[in-house]
């Protein structure tokens, strides 16, 4: 069965809601404000036409006053009250259409009380109700269609009861009424379909923007995270270090470098897949030991680095390093080629204050020197280093890629 594109679009789905339901939800507040304003102006226009009734058809003056204000007055107040109720906007639009239809019936009933021949000329004004229900109030097309057909039927039923309404008059009236009906419905359909089309386009743009933001966030995450362990990579470390910059105040920082002992032998014996699992397990142990203090990153290969301001004293930094060493040892990851028979780590620590003239890479260099001291002394231990003097050289391989001044 043929269906207009407008109705096809309304029946489609956006998530778990139909387009109609989502459209009505999203436009509710804006549409309600528009309806309240239009209803106010239309009510003022409708009731002011009591003066036109009295001027053109004096014989229906009392009838017009009574029917307009005693019937349409309460109906208009009830409509405004209904606008305030927590019901879907489409029901409020339907209520507005029904009030316009009632206004048409009341107006026709008023004119039926006149015996003045001028009523035939005034009756052409009834076509304004078709314009109100289609172009002015712009309800959904289906409501405009049903309401317009009702008003059209009401007008051209009433016309036969007007005094002096001969067939030629009716045909002349229809020659204007039919085009007004058809063209106003066409205008309403175009408005309804274009409004829906623009809404769907905006919805798609918002969806694309959301998807793009999510993908950009994922790309940024990939930029700053190590894909194997999920820890920060060197870029992530640089970004974190840059946030610690305090130009006027020395900042206490601890750097802890962790190296998996005999990792090459582990890879050779168990294979690279097991090596990856081992690194992920060690990364998890580091995160558990640090408990969210500072940043834990994969510094390269089997090396990890912890940068912390919460454990910035030497004693606290060494205690954290020892906790890391024990956490890894307690994993119990088998490492047959070693005397311990399980995976262990060596840890180098350096804690100190960094200032505008002290690069964080000097702390990293000192921690790295302490790490190599731990390895020379037999591995599976923690050693603390001292901050090198400002004039000492820092190897490019021992830096984090940039030299942010803290």
UniProtKB/TrEMBL annotation:
GO CC field: plasma membrane
GO BP terms in the entry: cell adhesion involved in single-species biofilm formation; negative regulation of bacterial-type flagellum-dependent cell motility
EC number: 2.7.7.65
Cross-referenced InterPro entries: Diguanylate_Cyclase (IPR050469), GGDEF_dom (IPR000160), Nucleotide_cyclase (IPR029787), Rev_trsase/Diguanyl_cyclase (IPR043128)
Region Disordered, annotated ranges: 379-406
Swiss-Prot/TrEMBL cofactor(s): Mg(2+)
Keywords from the named record: Membrane, Transmembrane, Transmembrane helix
Segments of skewed composition (Polar residues): 386-406
Protein name in UniProt: diguanylate cyclase
Organism of provenance: Vreelandella hamiltonii
Lineage: Bacteria, Pseudomonadati, Pseudomonadota, Gammaproteobacteria, Oceanospirillales
């Amino acid at each position: 069965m043929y269906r207009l594109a407008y109705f096809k679009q309304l029946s489609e789905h956006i998530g778990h809601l139909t387009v109609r339901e989502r459209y009505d939800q999203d436009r509710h507040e804006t549409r309600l404000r528009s309806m309240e304003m239009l209803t106010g102006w239309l009510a003022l226009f409708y009731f002011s036409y009591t003066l036109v009734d009295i001027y053109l058809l004096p014989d229906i003056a009392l009838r017009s006053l009574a029917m307009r204000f005693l019937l349409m007055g309460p109906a208009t107040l009830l409509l405004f009250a209904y606008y305030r109720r927590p019901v879907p906007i489409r029901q409020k639009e339907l209520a507005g259409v029904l009030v316009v239809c009632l206004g048409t019936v009341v107006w026709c009933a008023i004119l039926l009380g006149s015996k003045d021949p001028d009523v035939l000329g005034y009756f052409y004004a009834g076509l304004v109700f078709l314009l109100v229900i289609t172009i002015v109030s712009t309800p959904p097309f289906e409501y405009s269609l049903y309401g317009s057909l009702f008003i059209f039927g009401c007008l051209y039923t009433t016309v036969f009861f007007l005094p002096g309404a001969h067939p030629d008059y009716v045909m002349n009236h229809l020659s204007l009424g039919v085009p007004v009906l058809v063209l106003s419905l066409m205008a309403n359909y175009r408005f309804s379909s274009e409004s829906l089309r623009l809404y769907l386009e905006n919805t798609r743009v918002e969806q694309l923007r959301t998807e793009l933001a999510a993908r950009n966030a994922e790309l940024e995450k990939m930029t700053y995270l190590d894909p194997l362990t999920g820890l920060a990579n060197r870029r992530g470390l640089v970004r974190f270090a840059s946030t610690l910059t305090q130009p006027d105040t020395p900042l206490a920082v601890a750097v802890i470098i962790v190296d998996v002992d005999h990792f090459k032998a582990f890879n050779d014996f168990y294979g690279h897949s097991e090596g990856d699992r081992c690194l992920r397990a060690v990364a998890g142990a580091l995160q558990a030991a640090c408990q969210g203090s500072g940043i834990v990153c994969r510094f390269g290969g089997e090396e990890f680095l912890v940068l912390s301001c919460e454990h910035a004293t030497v004693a606290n930094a060494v205690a954290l390093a020892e906790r890391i060493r024990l956490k890894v040892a307690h994993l119990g990851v088998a490492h047959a080629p070693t005397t311990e028979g399980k995976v262990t780590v060596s840890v180098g620590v350096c804690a100190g204050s960094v200032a505008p003239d002290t690069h964080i890479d000097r702390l990293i260099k000192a921690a790295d020197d302490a790490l190599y001291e731990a390895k020379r002394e037999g591995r599976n231990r923690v050693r603390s280093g001292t901050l090198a003097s400002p004039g000492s050289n820092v190897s490019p391989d021992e830096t984090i890629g940039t030299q942010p001044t803290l």
